[in-house]
Amino acid sequence: MSEVRETIAAFKARLPKDVTLVAVSKKVDALRIAEAIAAGQVCFGENYVQEAATKWPALKAQHPHTKLHLIGHLQSNKAEAAVKLFNRIDTVDSEKLARTLAAAMQKTGRHIPVLLEVNIGREVQKSGVLPEHASALLQTARAAGLEVQGLMCIPPDGENPEPYFKELKQMTQDLKLPVCSMGMSADFEMAIACGASEVRLGTALFGRRV
Ligand SMILES: *Cc1c(COP(=O)(O)O)cnc(C)c1O
Predict the structure, then answer these.
(1) Tens digit of pLDDT for each residue in 162-179?
(2) How far is CA 48 from the centre of its chain?
């Protein structure tokens, strides 16, 4: 077995059964993504619409059961391309983007679910809706016709993520949403302990990005 296959198999055995593993394949070439698929990996995350558009149409044609999530910031002018390419948009963070995505789904006839990205550390440089505005954004997104499945966050760098993970989990429960996407290679165990329903792993599965 190749290294990617072994690593994926090991993670699948190690993670709790009710936690979804999203394999983050940004900067990973199609050959190695195909190895991950061969190891049974179904869900993948990509950060950039353009990069995903170069790799995924061919992978999807060969492996139509795979699920592709957009986990990077989405600009409104790429909403239609994103709706055509991805199975879920995990980074809805404004009313404008929610409305633009809803319109793109109407236009294309392709209706995909979304997550709301929460700026859990209230960092000025980060995207995401502020925690206190998440409930209002949820209402707007639903009113526009979007199916909101849950929340996602990236806690501040270099801090203990635990309080942030706990806060996102609490918000997910308060809003009665099923999906709580949190935890990356460095902190996924803590995220799972705090109640993550999905973790997003890149480096741990594919090695350091160059
Ligand atoms: C890159 C990225 C990940 C994966 O990060 P690793 O540390 O490589 O596991 C997860 N989530 C988001 C939003 C990312 O941009």
Answers:
(1) 999 999 999 999 999 999
(2) 12
